[in-house]
Design brief:
This protein is α+β, with helices and mostly antiparallel strands. The chain has six helices and 13 strands. The strands form two sheets. Strands 10-9-13-7-8-12-11 form a seven-stranded antiparallel sheet. Strand 11 and strand 12 form a beta hairpin. It has two domains: about 160 residues, Rossmann fold, CATH 3.40.50; about 90 residues, Elongation Factor Tu (Ef-tu), domain 3.
Length: about 290
C-alpha cells in the first residue's frame, strides 16, 4: 500500500506507543445479539482493569468502507496510547491477515482489509504493522477453543487487551507485516481546477451526503467556491452551517470532519435529493 508505508522502517515508530488503558470498539455486530457483549467480555477476561469504550456497533454489515470512515472520524480524538479494535470482517476465516499496527501513538487491531486505511491517513503517521501470531507469546491469553468465524472474540479482543494492558509489547504480537492494498477505500480523485468535481463517499445518519473534497481541496482551486451543481442540474449555495439555509432548502457546507457535504436544512439530502455514494457534484467558483 504505497501511501500507508509499513515494515522494518516503520517499526521504529512502535516505540512511541505507550498504552493508556483505553480500548475502543468499532464493529458491524449491532447490539441485539451477544456478539458485542462477548467482545467486551473477552477483553476484560484478559485485563479487567481496562476501560472499554464503544465507537459504534452499527457499521453497515460487512461494509469495510463505512467502518473506515467511522474510525477516521472518531479515533484521532482519543488520547495517544489508546488501542482501537475494529471488527468489520467479511473475510473472517480466510487468508486475510489478522494485524496490529501502530501509528502516531495509537494502536489498531483487526483484519488487514482496508478498514484502517482512512484513519492512518488522518493521523498522518507512518504505520508499523505486525501480523498477529496466535501460536506465539499471545497464545497464553487466547481461549482454548477458538472459532474460525469469530476472530473478534477469540483473537482480536485478547490481542487488543494484551496490548492495552502492557501484558504484551507490540513487537511480541507477531512478525513484521506489509499492509495489503485495500479493496475498499477512497476512489480515484476527480477534483482539480480543470475538472472541479467532488464525489459522494457516503451519507451519514442524518442523510447528509459527504464527499471526498476537503477545505484544502477547495482552496487549491484558486478561486472561491460559491455553489455546487447537483447531478440533476440544481445549484445549491456553499454556506457556513445548516441553519443558514431556510428550512427544507438544500445547501453545501464543510462538515465537522472538514469534508464538503450536501445537506437539506431540517431534512435529508439522501431522501430529498437522491444523492448516493458515487454521485458526482460540480463545484462552481467565482468567475
Amino acid at each position: 500500500m504505497a501511501d500507508l508505508p509499513s515494515g522494518p522502517a516503520g517499526d521504529a515508530h512502535a516505540g512511541a506507543f505507550r498504552p493508556c488503558g483505553i480500548v475502543t470498539l468499532t464493529t458491524d455486530f449491532g447490539t441485539s445479539d451477544a456478539y458485542a457483549g462477548a467482545l467486551k467480555g473477552s477483553i476484560l477476561r484478559v485485563a479487567p482493569e481496562l476501560r472499554v469504550h464503544d465507537i459504534s456497533h452499527s457499521i453497515a454489515p460487512q461494509d469495510v468502507g463505512h467502518g473506515a470512515r467511522v474510525l477516521r472520524g472518531a479515533c484521532p480524538w482519543f488520547p495517544p496510547g489508546t488501542v482501537h479494535l475494529a471488527v468489520v470482517d467479511p473475510g473472517v476465516g480466510t487468508e486475510r491477515a489478522p494485524i496490529a499496527l501502530v501509528v502516531s501513538g495509537h494502536a489498531f487491531v483487526g483484519p488487514d482489509n482496508g478498514v484502517f486505511a482512512e484513519v492512518v491517513r488522518a493521523l498522518g503517521g507512518r504505520a508499523a504493522a505486525r501480523r498477529i501470531d496466535e501460536r506465539g507469546a499471545l497464545e497464553r491469553f487466547l481461549p482454548d477453543r477458538r472459532s474460525r468465524t469469530f476472530h473478534g472474540r477469540d483473537l482480536f479482543a485478547p490481542a487488543a487487551a494484551a496490548l492495552a494492558s502492557a501484558r504484551l509489547g507490540f513487537e511480541e504480537i507477531g512478525p513484521e507485516h506489509g499492509l495489503a492494498t485495500p479493496r475498499e477505500g477512497r476512489p480515484a480523485r476527480l477534483l482539480s481546477a480543470e475538472t472541479p468535481v467532488a464525489r459522494v463517499t457516503h451519507c451519514d445518519a442524518f442523510g447528509n451526503a459527504v464527499t471526498d473534497a476537503t477545505e484544502a481541496d477547495l482552496r487549491a482551486l484558486g478561486r472561491p467556491v460559491r455553489s455546487v451543481r447537483l447531478p440533476d442540474g440544481r445549484r445549491v449555495p456553499l454556506l457556513g452551517t445548516y441553519g443558514d439555509a431556510p428550512a427544507g432548502s438544500p445547501l453545501a457546507l464543510l462538515g465537522s470532519e472538514g469534508f464538503l457535504e450536501i445537506a437539506v436544512s431540517g431534512g435529508s439530502a439522501r431522501q430529498q435529493l437522491g444523492l448516493q455514494p458515487g454521485s458526482e457534484l460540480r463545484l462552481e467558483t467565482e468567475p
